[in-house]
């Protein structure tokens, strides 16, 4: 069954439940700052594992002590879907365990 794009209102309502996440053009976006480059790298590895489990992947960027994600659903024409919010929630859970802010 195809994944349906969310309406603007649905996206806004779900974003209200995910502090720090925003809509950047057509993608959900979040950047995290960690205590070190090693900690940021470890978080990237854990995010990659979650993305494999969900079979849903973001654009993932590793900086010195930062990790940034941008995600949308290609199969929905590049729109934001519930799959993107599921990934965002899982990443938020990981981030708290890594001491990210």
Structure notes:
This protein has three helices and four strands. The chain has 101 residues and is α+β, with helices and mostly antiparallel strands. It has helices at 8-15, 37-54, 82-98; strands at 22-24, 27-33, 59-62, 66-71. The longest helix has 18 residues, at 37-54. A four-stranded antiparallel sheet has the order 1-2-4-3. The termini are far apart. A hairpin with a 3-residue loop joins strand 3 (59-62) and strand 4. Helix 2 packs antiparallel against helix 3.
Order of helices and strands: HEEHEEH
The strands making up the biggest β-sheet line up spatially as 1-2-4-3
Low-confidence stretches: none
Fraction in helix: 40-55%
Mean pLDDT: 96
SSE arrangement:
Layout: H1 8-15, E1 22-24, E2 27-33, H2 37-54, E3 59-62, E4 66-71, H3 82-98
Antiparallel strand pairs: 1-2, 2-4, 3-4
Helix pairs in contact: 2-3
Structure in a nutshell:
With 101 residues, the protein is α+β, with helices and mostly antiparallel strands. Helix content is 43%, strand content 20%. The chain is built from three helices and four strands; from the N terminus they run αββαββα.
Core attributes:
globular, 3 helices, alpha+beta, 101 residues, 4 strands
């Amino acid at each position: 069954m195809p994944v349906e794009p969310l309406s603007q209102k649905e996206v806004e309502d779900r974003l209200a439940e995910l502090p720090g996440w925003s809509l950047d053009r057509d993608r959900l976006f979040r950047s995290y700052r960690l205590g070190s480059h090693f900690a940021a790298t470890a978080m990237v590895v854990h995010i990659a594992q979650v993305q494999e489990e969900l079979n849903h992947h973001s654009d993932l960027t590793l900086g010195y002590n930062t990790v940034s994600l941008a995600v949308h659903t290609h199969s929905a024409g590049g729109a934001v879907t519930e799959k993107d919010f599921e990934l965002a929630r899982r990443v938020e859970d990981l981030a708290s365990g890594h001491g990210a802010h």
